[in-house]
Amino acid sequence: MSEIILSVEHVTKKFPVSGGKFLTACDDITFNVRKGETVAVVGESGCGKTTLLKAIMNMQKPTSGKIIFHGEDITQLTGEAKRQNYRHIQMVFQDPTAAFNPKMKIKDIVCEPLLNFDLISKSDVDSRARELLTQVDLPADFVNRYPHNMSGGQRQRVAIARALALEPEIIACDEATSALDVSVQDTIIKLLVKLQREKGITYIFICHDMALVSLFSHRVAVMYLGNMMEKLDGDKLHQARHPYTRALLKAVFSTDQEKNQYIGILPGDIPSPLNIPSGCPFQNRCEYCQELCQQKKPDFRELEENHFVACHYPL
Predict the structure, then answer these.
(1) Boundary residue ending a domain (127, 149, 167)
(2) Residues of the domain holding 124
(3) What sign for the dihedral angle of Cα 241, 245, 250, 252?
(4) pTM for the complete prediction?
(5) Which of the listed residues 167, 185, 200 is the one where a domain comes to its end?
(6) Whether the Cβ atoms of residue 158 and residue 92 lie closer than 8 Å to each other
(7) Number of folded domains that form the chain
């Protein structure tokens, strides 16, 4: 089994709001990331996935908890030490159009991280950009294009090339395929898998698509209202035992399903994150809810090897 290179330990992130209240975006999140694997974090919008990713990227400081990278708590880094840490953990954003300066050429976008860390000179930009574009299966002559001259899939490949420039150990992908056509999603995922196989890169992949993550993720972590509900191996996602995870899987469309086949829809609405009920946060939408679920928040416990669930009555 590969080594653990990043540990998220009891991370909580709260945001102050009016009236002296706090919005808890992440509540006591704990999991490990091993070298060379893909960990997918899934859940509905507003569940805290992106907030968790920003904490891992050191873009937001957790209210409490630690994020250990090679034995060091990176949440405590400041100044130059914090800047240097970005060399090892890079990010691919959901919308590359918004992440790029539209007035910069592709070669300048891709090589900007290298120039920021004085790893190349300006005279090397063109040749290094061509190498990076080739790694993500783009023509080398794209170096002189601008972002608006490229398709969405091509721009996302450029975003990946920019993330690869510093040769990081971890790349965090925030909904990196959600804005792309299905056929383009397929090519981007295949590219990520190829790069992981060649370079041993570790991915933390934020996504809504359960079918997609089941195809290439080594482990899947499921979040709901800032809480970790279930964590299991990606190839065992069909063995999920939390009612929320099972509901997400039932909502997946398939081209092979019968026309009259039932598509699972979760009843009720997500509670306000400012007024999360005591007990299990999923209680008002769970058909298996019992009195204990309303009284006590379930512990996040291991049911079997590498399979953790926060549920009093796992299915």
Answers:
(1) 167
(2) 99-167
(3) negative
(4) 0.90
(5) 167
(6) no
(7) 2
Contact at 8 Å (CB) between 193 and 216? yes
**Pair 178, 149 in one domain:** no
- Using CA atoms, how far apart are residues 92 and 253, in angstroms rounded to an integer? 27
Is 189 part of a structural domain of the chain?
A: yes
Task: Answer yes or no: is 271 within a domain.
Answer: no
Mean pLDDT of 186-215: 89
Query: pLDDT by residue (tens digit) across 239-280?
Result: 999 999 999 888 776 666 666 666 666 777 788 888 888 899
pLDDT digits (tens, 9 = 90+) for 137-169: 999 999 999 999 999 889 999 999 999 999 999
